[in-house]
Design brief:
DNA-binding, homodimer, mainly alpha, elongated
DNA sequence: CAATACTTGCCAATAATTGTCAAGACAATA
DNA sequence: TATTGTCTTGACAATTATTGGCAAGTATTG
């Protein structure tokens, strides 16, 4: 029920003494949404990652990677064949699609 | 617009001279659905994979792996950070979650 | 040319996701 | 303990997505 990207965002936000409200206004959503995003209770839209990186002065690529890893994890969690499937996909993308 | 699992299912089905209709009845869906599944136009439910393996006398784990790889691919396709994210997830699951 | 197999586009029903709101919990401070 | 400010929670209606099935279409087979 937590997410890597959510944890990271909360970490960045609190370290910079930003309030939920402040992030919320820049992202143009209710504070409750940000609260839930940080705690992995609501998904974060991909377009929002770039904005968040901006607000939080973080590396866009790093956040994108965390976000993507979360998406992948949601797919494989609890799947017995996760390992094999991951390998197969890695191979596939290495060969230019 | 095609899928690994779909291709495999069609391959298995035709090799055994089974009609869409026959597979459809066992899966209790319209033939059009199977047609679309095989061509990657409609998603296949995970529970259906086991049934399909049964009908097609195929290895359940192999089909599950193909199915899962397709799911993963849908998430990463077109994503610049795909590679890194995949690595990160592989690592994560190797450490017992 | 039948007859049979498969494909396609569309629809209504259902399910999932969305943002918002109001009330609640919690912490610090007076 | 009251007050204030921050964050959390749950419920809700509205929108959006997904579903399966039908009917008409296009191949394919004999």
């Amino acid at each position: 029920m937590t997410s890597q990207i959510g944890d990271k965002i909360r970490e960045l936000r609190t370290k910079q003494n930003l309030l939920l409200r402040q992030v919320a206004s820049k992202l143009e959503v209710d504070t409750s949404i940000i609260s839930k995003m940080e705690r992995g209770e609501r998904p974060i839209k991909q377009e929002q990652i770039a904005i968040l990186a901006d607000i939080l002065k973080a590396d866009k690529e790093e956040l994108q990677t965390l976000w993507l890893a979360d998406q992948l994890y949601n797919v494989i969690e609890g799947q017995p064949m996760a390992d094999e499937a991951l390998k197969s996909v890695s191979k596939k993308i290495k060969k230019g699609k």
